[in-house]
Design brief:
Arc Repressor Mutant, subunit A; elongated; 2 domains
């Protein structure tokens, strides 16, 4: 159980965040504990590897395409959201007018209301499904 504490403190040592006394106690433990010594060496290799990583500089075409892609995603997301809000509002207004109309309780009024609600549900379902398919299409980045 004591080793758990020392294994966690290994990152503090590698990051240079230990005080002199903490460092002395930790190094004394690591010399006597094979498991902690191995853990510290492994963490040291990981830190060394990550410190050696360098980001690749993007080419000249990267930034214009990057911003166009963000703009397209925002534009489509906003458009889809506005479409859903608009269709919901139109459907609710149509239902409200139908219910408050004196002809609503006739068989024709009820049939028309049911058909409008069904049409709105199908439309929203198709739009949502197309959007979901487009968003999760594994081949959308492949040019034909």
């Amino acid at each position: 159980m004591v080793c758990n504490r020392f294994q966690i403190e290994g990152m503090k040592l590698l990051d240079g965040e230990m005080s002199g006394e903490e460092k002395r106690v930790y190094e004394a433990h690591v010399q006597s504990c094979e498991e902690c010594s191995k853990e510290l060496k492994d963490m040291g290799r990981i830190v060394q590897f990550t410190n050696e990583l360098r980001l690749r500089k993007p080419d000249d075409e990267f930034w214009p395409n990057y911003w166009r892609g963000i703009y397209r995603r925002l534009e489509r997301g906003a458009g889809f959201l506005l479409l859903i809000i608009g269709m919901t509002a139109v459907t609710l207004i149509a239902i409200h007018r139908a219910v408050t109309s004196p002809e609503f309780f006739t068989p024709t009024g009820i049939g028309i209301t049911i058909a409008l609600v069904g049409l709105a549900v199908v439309f929203l379902s198709v739009v949502r499904e197309r959007y979901h398919e487009h968003k999760n299409d594994p081949y959308k980045g492949v040019e034909q």
